[in-house]
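tokens incoming
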């Protein structure tokens, strides 16, 4: 495993973002693990997170894009932190944009926060995690309703490696098939298991045999065939 992947997995654990237990996801699935980007709360955490995302986006999509779109609510700090990191690491000024859950009718009106989206813009979407592709069903129409844009791709931090909403393909593969743009992640759940299974980290084993059995059972039901 590449060293940066191991570092990022440990960063998620240290930030209390990656947890193990029993969780009900937005998709309705019961999962033995959960990733919550809302737990990144300090300046140091957000700075480091933005750098991980910026490096992954640069690796997969380069810097030929104009806007980084982070869907409300968790995508808002992700887009801000990553545009800052992009400027620091690569000297490229990317605009951030997010949506509001409710349209604002006074002052800075409309559905968007940050930059407006203009005809001809190239957009990268940034999210914490995509389980079933449901979130993109909500985000894609919002972006396309703003202007005639090209969506370059989607970047998430964790690929959960499970089926999407309507096929046996992974959620990320299903997004690419349905919407026509690539979807990538900093790390996969397979990377997480490889990194943590039966390996002590800071005095504890986060994935022991029992937890590995629960993860395997989850993928037997929801994993990519």
């Amino acid at each position: 495993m590449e060293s940066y992947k191991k570092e990022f997995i440990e960063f998620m654990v240290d930030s209390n973002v990656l947890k193990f237990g029993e969780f009900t996801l937005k998709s309705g699935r019961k999962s033995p693990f959960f990733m919550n980007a809302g737990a990144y709360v300090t300046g140091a955490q957000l700075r480091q997170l933005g750098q991980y995302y910026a490096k992954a986006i640069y690796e997969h999509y380069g810097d030929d894009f104009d806007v980084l779109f982070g869907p409300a609510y968790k995508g808002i700090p992700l887009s801000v932190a990553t545009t800052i990191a992009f400027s620091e690491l690569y000297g490229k000024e990317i605009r951030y944009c997010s949506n509001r859950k409710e349209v604002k009718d006074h002052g800075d009106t409309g559905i968007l926060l940050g930059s407006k989206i203009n005809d001809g813009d190239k957009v990268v979407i940034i999210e914490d995690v995509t389980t079933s592709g449901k979130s993109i069903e909500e985000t894609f129409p919002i972006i396309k309703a703003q202007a005639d844009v090209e969506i370059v791709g989607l970047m998430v931090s964790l690929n959960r490696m499970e089926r999407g909403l309507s096929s046996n393909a992974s959620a990320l593969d299903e997004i690419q098939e349905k919407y026509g743009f690539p979807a990538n992640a900093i790390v996969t759940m397979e990377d997480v298991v490889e990194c943590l299974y039966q390996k002590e980290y800071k005095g504890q084993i986060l994935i022991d045999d029992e937890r590995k059995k629960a993860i395997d059972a989850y993928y037997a039901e929801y994993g990519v065939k």
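note: The CA atoms of residues 33 and 39 lie 15 Å apart.
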